[in-house]
UniProtKB/TrEMBL annotation:
GO molecular function: transferase activity
Alphabetical keyword list: Transferase
PANTHER family: ACYL TRANSFERASE 4, OS05G0315700 PROTEIN
InterPro entries on file: CAT-like_dom_sf, Plant_acyltransferase
Origin species: Lithospermum erythrorhizon (Purple gromwell)
Tagged with keyword Cell division: no
Family statement: Belongs to the plant acyltransferase family.
Protein's recorded name: Acetyltransferase
Pfam families in UniProt: Transferase (PF02458)
Transferase in keyword set: yes
């Protein structure tokens, strides 16, 4: 297990231009509704992702990455023209995209730093050095309504590498869609006139029915009274510190060997193993009462397993089976019920009370995103205003030049300092010394040492 602390690297960034890029050809002026799942409260945030690129050998004819990416964006917007529009809010907080060709924000910048200064493996989530400089939020563009739907900043480095920082509105894009757009831009940058995969707008498939009818239970949106018991640190978000933990082949193999049940081994995956491990350890260090209800929510699988803290930490098998089962229950009817629930209940937020929320990006790869410099080294999702500290973005990552490296899953997590230290200890226990957990005599959950 490799633990990465908050980066302390500091450098200066000079922004040269802040401009609006429009499609190179006229595009339709029309309105497109988002689905009632897209425009729910949990998606009304901006998310930054930070891929970086090394200097190509031999140099790419001294091409300027700023010009290459800006020009490819302008052409890609002909095909992805809704991204050059603006979000409007209708009655009942319903969101739609007005395709206006109002253009997308683009920033050109230079940084006084080499890529090597970020470390052998480059930029790692969740704490990105000088994030506010690598992805500058233009004051007039804040908020999701009537604002640009995406911002791109290309920052040249003094080593001839560059950082491509993208901030996208989550009501409009998820990680899979972003990769498709970047792939299209890369193809255009390399001389392909038409992207190999063209976008299709089918958001209406998950709009509410007429009349809306809730056919499933949706506990992920439960609203709890303020007096419900939660760890005291959750009321003081300034006390949290971010860390990243890497689970490579060795760690995942170790976790698999700890599973006792044949059924757990059969239904398990790398994501399920890692998520179960982190959920158990996080529950332990937050010191819930054994009878407290705890929850796990994977945002790409709209279902939520619920158990008690005491039951969860009995063994890893139980946690793995809880997480594994949710993907088999996500049916089309369930999604329609979510859409109807949004309309009838006023688009409530997810409940974060004793809930560990994970965004599973482990199957999103950048293999085909190539602007002429080869694929990016990583595509880290960074911590950002509006993203709750309870949320972890699991991403594929590769550690190089290390005995504990290889391809695996990077897990960013935020906890108070004392809890973070114990969290690392609990992970070490699970991966090295034992796999059994029980409830402590003081009434809070702890590991059995």
């Amino acid at each position: 297990m490799l633990l990465y602390a908050t980066a302390s690297l500091r450098f200066s960034v000079t922004r040269k231009n802040i401009e609006l890029v429009r499609p190179t050809k006229p595009t339709p002026h029309e309105s497109k509704l988002l689905s009632d799942i897209d425009d729910q409260e949990a998606n009304r945030i901006d998310l930054p992702t930070i891929p970086f690129y090394r200097r190509r050998e031999p140099p790419l004819e001294r091409k300027d990455p700023v010009k290459v990416i800006r020009d490819s964006l302008a052409v890609a917007l002909v095909f992805y023209y809704p991204l050059a529009g603006r979000l409007r809010e209708l009655r009942g907080r319903k969101l739609m995209v007005e395709c206006t060709s109002e253009r997308m924000l683009f920033i050109e910048a230079d940084a006084s730093v080499k890529l090597e200064e970020f470390g052998e493996d480059g930029i790692r989530p969740p704490s990105i050095p000088c994030l506010d400089q690598l992805i500058y939020v233009v004051p007039s563009s804040s908020g999701i309504i009537n604002s640009p739907l995406r911002l791109i900043q290309v920052t040249r480095l003094i080593c001839d590498g560059f950082i491509l920082a993208i901030c996208f509105n989550h009501t409009k894009l998820d990680g899979f869609a972003l990769i498709k757009i970047l792939t299209a831009m890369g193809e255009i940058a390399r001389g392909i006139l038409t992207p190999s995969v063209l976008p299709i707008w089918q958001r209406e498939l998950f709009c509410s029915r007429h009349p809306p009818r809730i056919t499933h239970i949706h506990p992920e949106y439960d609203q709890f009274p303020n007096e419900i018991r939660v760890p005291r640190y959750l009321h003081k978000p300034d006390s949290l510190i971010p860390r990243s933990f890497f689970f490579g082949p060795e760690e995942i193999s170790t976790l698999m060997s700890k599973l006792v049940s044949n059924n757990s081994r059969k239904i398990s995956s790398s994501f399920n193993l890692v998520a179960a491990c982190v959920w158990c350890c996080r529950t332990i260090v937050l010191q819930f009462d054994p009878t407290d209800e705890v929850r796990f929510l994977c945002v790409v699988r709209p279902l939520i397993p619920i158990t008690t803290a005491g039951e969860l930490v009995e063994n890893v098998d139980f946690a793995v089976e809880l997480i594994s089962k949710i993907k088999f229950k996500a049916t089309k009817e369930h999604l329609h019920s979510v859409a109807d629930f949004m309309v009838l209940k006023g688009r409530p937020p997810f409940s974060l009370v004793r809930t560990y929320v994970v965004s599973d990006n482990t199957s999103i790869t950048n293999e085909n995103v190539d602007f002429g410099w080869g694929k990016s080294e990583s595509a880290s999702v960074a911590s950002f205003d509006g993203v709750p500290s309870d949320v972890s973005f699991y991403i594929p990552f590769e550690i190089k030049n290390s005995d504990h490296g290889g391809k695996g899953i990077m897990v960013p997590i935020s906890l108070p300092a004392e809890a973070m230290e114990r969290f690392a200890e609990e992970l070490g226990i699970m991966l090295n010394n034992g796999d059994k957990f029980d409830a402590g005599r003081n009434g809070s959950v702890r590991s059995a040492l």
